[in-house]
């Protein structure tokens, strides 16, 4: 059971890493029954992603515990044995992902007691998460021979870093499929007028369109994007244009430390000095600031300002050192 908790935590952390440049950034809510708050009550694209990535996290942690010999009824994957070609032999301890998948299915899917549309959605997305781990394996090898000449190699299968799984599921999130329940078969089908017309095994599916997450909304669990750090120089995800929802942004200056004048010393380490520099940070405006500017009661903002930010002026320096 400990590994289930670790897996869920791994999924949450990866969710926040993958979504840090999105309007919904996988924020957690303290003292809520669900760690993600009311966001999870909607059968949305975001819920689909959370179910998939936490399911993947459980598979990952259980499999990792198995490879470390921490689970009584689990051992290395014995399917990978023998010699593939000259000088290449299966050995070591291949990750037993099949065991991790069975374990995750048993415990994670057991929470879906009903067989309504939402349960079908959750079960499908759990399945996608489990398959994501299985679909991203790598081969690790150890060399043998005189002076590690690598004349012979012993190799084993291992799970890819979890960030690779997270990136894959983020792509599935962006290509999620809106579905409904067919009244005759009681199965999930693609919503009318949507393309493609079939649900694929690795599609994340959802039943409700998402809110825009631009402003706080207690009903949807949206925390809004006020005060979020944005990038004013690049388009796309994380840009001020998208993240700030057209409200514009404020620019402040902060002092930060960085490594500089690095030198290599024999042998073998690198020593750096610690330098300080002033950098600009761009923070999304609140809806109130945007309204004030529009009414003429605050600084006037042009369309250009909404893209490039207000003229720089001395800002508050956070976490500065003297």
Cα radius of gyration in angstroms: 25 Å
Give the uncertain stretches in residue-range form: 298-322
**What structural class do the secondary elements suggest?**
alpha+beta
What is the succession of H and E elements? HHEEHHEEHEEEEEEHEEHH
Question: For the residues shown, what is the average pLDDT?
Answer: 85
Q: Gap between N and C termini, in Å?
A: 48 Å
> What portion of the residues fall into strands of 2 or more residues?
15-25%
What does the main sheet amount to? 4 strands, mixed
Q: What would you call the quaternary organization?
A: single chain
Structure in words:
- It is found in: Secreted, Extracellular space, Extracellular matrix.
- Residues 287-322 are annotated as: Disordered.
- This protein has 322 residues and is an alpha+beta fold.
- It contains eight helices and twelve strands.
- The protein has a four-stranded mixed beta sheet with strand order 1-2-4-3, with no helix packed on it. The protein has a three-stranded mixed beta sheet with strand order 6-5-7.
- The longest helix is centred in the N-terminal third of the chain and has 23 residues, at 45-67.
């Amino acid at each position: 059971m400990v590994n289930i908790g670790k897996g869920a935590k791994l999924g949450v952390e990866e969710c926040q890493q993958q979504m840090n440049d999105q309007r919904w950034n996988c924020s957690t809510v303290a003292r809520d029954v669900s760690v993600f708050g009311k966001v999870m009550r909607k059968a949305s694209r975001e819920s689909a992603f959370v179910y998939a990535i936490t399911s993947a996290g459980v598979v990952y942690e259980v499999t990792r515990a198995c490879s470390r010999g921490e689970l009584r009824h689990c051992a290395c994957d014995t399917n990978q044995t023998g010699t593939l070609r000259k000088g290449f032999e299966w050995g070591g301890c291949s990750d037993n992902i099949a065991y991790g998948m069975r374990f995750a299915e048993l415990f994670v899917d057991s929470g879906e007691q009903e067989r309504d549309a939402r349960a079908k959605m959750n079960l499908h997305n759990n399945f996608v998460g489990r398959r994501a781990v299985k679909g991203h394996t790598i081969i690790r090898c150890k060399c043998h021979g005189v002076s590690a000449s690598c004349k012979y190699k012993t190799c084993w299968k291992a799970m890819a870093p979890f960030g690779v799984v997270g990136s894959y599921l983020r792509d599935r999130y962006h290509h999620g499929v809106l579905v409904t329940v067919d009244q005759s078969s009681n199965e999930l089908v693609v919503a009318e007028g949507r393309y493609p017309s079939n649900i694929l095994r690795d599609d994340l599916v959802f039943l409700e369109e998402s809110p825009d997450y631009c402003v706080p909304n207690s009903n949807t669990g949206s925390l809004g994007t006020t005060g979020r750090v944005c990038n004013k120089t690049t388009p796309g995800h994380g840009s001020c244009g998208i993240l700030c929802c057209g409200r514009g942004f404020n620019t402040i200056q902060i002092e930060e430390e960085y490594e500089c004048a690095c030198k290599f010393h024999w042998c073998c380490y690198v020593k750096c000095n610690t330098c300080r520099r002033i950098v600009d940070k761009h923070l999304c405006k609140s809806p109130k600031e945007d309204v004030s500017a529009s009414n003429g009661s605050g600084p006037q903002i042009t369309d250009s300002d909404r893209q490039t930010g207000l003229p720089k002026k001395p800002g508050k320096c956070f976490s500065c050192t003297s």
